[in-house]
Amino acid sequence: MTTDDDMREEIQGLGTRFDGLEQKFGGLEQKFGGLEQRFGGLEQKFDGLEKKVDGLPTRADLAGFRDEIINNFRILAEEAKAGARLAAEGFDGTLKRIERDLGDLKQEMVTKFSDHGQALANHHQRLLTLERRRRRTKRD
Residue 57 in contact with residue 65, Cβ under 8 Å? Predict the structure, then answer.
């Protein structure tokens, strides 16, 4: 009887052990279920981040944008140089015209003062003549 009873006890012990293991596996299953839920939440967050990252420009996009900005800057710099060159040429032309006008004005002033000087000299001569006549007329 010992063998049957021992075996029954051993089988009951194994049953108890299996029950304990089953409970432990049930606990592990619950823990894994919790982890699965957490990973599901993380997966949703990563999907959201992926959508956000998909909208961001890549390095190639940024390099292309940089090259476009540099090219536009070069074009604007060339246009500014051309504008400055035109302004300088216009300024030079204006200065030359002013110099010409001043030269003409100087010549005109010289001519007028010369004419004026001649008129005054002639006027002086006429006054002297008139004064001589008057003196002669008074004496006579």
Answer: yes
Whole-angstrom CA distances from 45 to 31, 33, 38 are 21, 18, 11
Largest CA distance in the chain: 198
Residue 77 clears pLDDT 80, i.e. is over it: yes
User: Average pLDDT over the chain, rounded to whole?
Assistant: 84
pTM attached to this predicted model: 0.41
For residue 10, what pLDDT is reported? 79
Query: Letter for the amino acid at 16?
Result: T
45, HSE (Cβ side, Cα atoms, 13 Å): 6
Task: Say how far apart CA 27 and CA 20 lie, in whole Å.
Answer: 11
Q: Tell me which of 60-69, 80-89, 94-103, 107-116 is least confident.
A: 107-116
Annotate 26-70 with DSSP letters as a single string. HHHHHHHHHHHHHHHHHHHHHHHHHHHHHHSPPHHHHHHHHHHHH
Torsion of CA 9, 10, 14, 20, to 10 degrees: 50
